[in-house]
UniProtKB/TrEMBL annotation:
Residues annotated as domain HTH cro/C1-type: 19-72
Listed CDD domains: HTH_XRE (cd00093)
Protein name according to UniProt: Helix-turn-helix transcriptional regulator
Residues that span the membrane, as ranges: none
Pfam families: HTH_3
Species this protein is from: Promicromonospora kroppenstedtii
InterPro entries the record matches: Cro/C1-type_HTH (IPR001387), Lambda_DNA-bd_dom_sf (IPR010982)
Length: 100
């Protein structure tokens, strides 16, 4: 298994801190969020601390409970950036191949 880079670990920790803050802003207990997301409290703790190898599916289940899923998906939309819109004006290829 590949080792997690320091930058990625910082991002996971920051995301976890934000998830925990949103949970508290909503006044929800960890157990309630875990139950609504269909995961264990241990898995929620791993998301909130940025540790472990939590699946993206479980992370999005928590984000959905907290009302954040649409914002996260929207933030990854390339058409929300100037560079993405510039490149979208050209036809995107169906596949990207490594030049030989």
């Amino acid at each position: 298994m590949a080792r997690t880079s320091l930058r990625t670990q910082r991002d996971l920790t920051s995301l976890g801190d934000h998830v925990r803050a949103w949970r508290k802003i909503h006044g929800l207990t960890a157990q309630l969020v875990a139950d609504r997301a269909g995961i264990t409290r241990t898995t929620l703790r791993a998301i909130e601390t940025g540790t472990g190898t939590v699946s993206l599916e479980n992370t999005f289940a928590v984000l959905r409970v907290l009302g954040m899923a649409d914002a996260v998906v929207g933030a990854s939309d390339p058409l929300t950036t100037e560079m993405g819109r510039f490149h979208a004006e050209r036809a995107l290829p169906q596949r990207v191949r490594v030049p030989s």
